[in-house]
Write a structure and sequence with these properties.
The structure is a single chain. The two termini are about 35 Å apart. The strands form two sheets. A six-stranded antiparallel sheet has the order 6-5-4-9-8-7, sandwiched between helices. A three-stranded antiparallel sheet has the order 1-3-2. About 40% of the residues lie in helices and about 20% in strands. The chain is an alpha+beta fold and about 260 residues long. It has helices at about 10-20, 30-40, 40-55, 70-75, 80-100, 140-150, 155-160, 175-190, 230-245; strands at about 30, 60, 65-70, 105-110, 115-120, 135, 190-195, 200-210, 215-225.
Length: about 260
């Protein structure tokens, strides 16, 4: 497919370029930012951005900056997985958050990354790289390992083939060791990660299943390294994951696929 600044792109694909320029950490963009991110001519970006504003998909501030519009947010809330999943998970995430006063995260698989669809945080919780709507690597985050472990061997091989980036000195980058950890996660339904994504940050994650026993999400608690006995909080995380799964229609008789 031609690059954004080259001919041959459809109008819709260029509109998508403008919309997908907005990401976590890039929630407010100027025309110059959009031009740089998309590679499209400035005049084209201006025309498309103003059309998106008129449609309510983008908002424009008095100083000319653009943000995601309420219409686009409302559309996103209709995603068939996120609505029942978040509705089912939030009460149990809130219980974990209230008890531990740490980050509690809910993630789903998208491509070769984990996407955070919900997160509860405390003001004094440890600083982390993740944020709501953000993406985490599958090979070295708690939620990522849970999702990767249950996604099938094809995705595991794809992730390994793409390379296993090092985030800290503790990141697991050996394919054989990663496969062993994923096999254990499939067996137990739990992943424990110690400072693999961010130094000073540990996490315990577990799977969430639907009525057919398919893993549709991962739930995690993220804490400062050494601040909490991970073995002590593991049962609470597992119980919360099972409770959310029950609300999604799962029963032990369905097993785990």
């Amino acid at each position: 497919m031609p690059r954004s600044g080259q001919p041959g792109r459809s109008v819709s694909s260029r509109l998508f370029d403008v919309l997908f320029a907005f990401r976590p950490g890039r929630s407010r963009l100027t025309l110059a930012d959009l031009t740089r991110q998309t590679g499209l001519p400035h005049a084209t970006v201006r025309r498309l951005a103003l059309e998106l504003v008129e449609a309510g998909l983008l908002d424009r501030a008095p100083d000319g900056g653009f943000t995601v519009g309420i219409q686009l947010w409302q559309l996103g809330t209709l995603a068939p997985l996120s609505v029942p999943l978040r509705t089912a998970a939030l009460p149990f995430m809130d219980d974990l958050h209230t008890a531990l006063r740490q980050h509690v995260q809910l993630a789903v698989l998208e491509g070769t990354e984990a996407v955070l669809v919900e997160r509860l945080s405390a003001g004094k919780a440890v600083d982390v790289m993740s944020r709501l709507g953000g993406r985490l690597p599958l090979h070295c985050s708690g939620v990522g390992k849970v999702l990767l472990a249950h996604a099938g061997p094809e995705l595991v091989e794809q992730v390994v083939a793409q390379g296993l980036p090092t985030y800290t000195e503790r990141t697991v980058t050996d394919p054989a060791r990663l496969r062993s950890m994923l096999a254990e996660c499939r067996e137990t339904g739990v992943a424990v990660v110690r400072e693999e994504t961010t130094l000073g940050v540990d996490s315990v994650a577990t799977r969430i299943l639907n009525a057919d026993g398919e893993v549709v999400a991962a739930l995690s608690v993220v804490v400062g390294a050494g601040s909490v006995d991970l073995r002590a909080i593991r049962p609470a995380v597992i119980a919360s994951g099972l409770a959310v799964s029950r609300r999604l229609g799962w029963h032990p008789s369905a097993g785990v696929r």
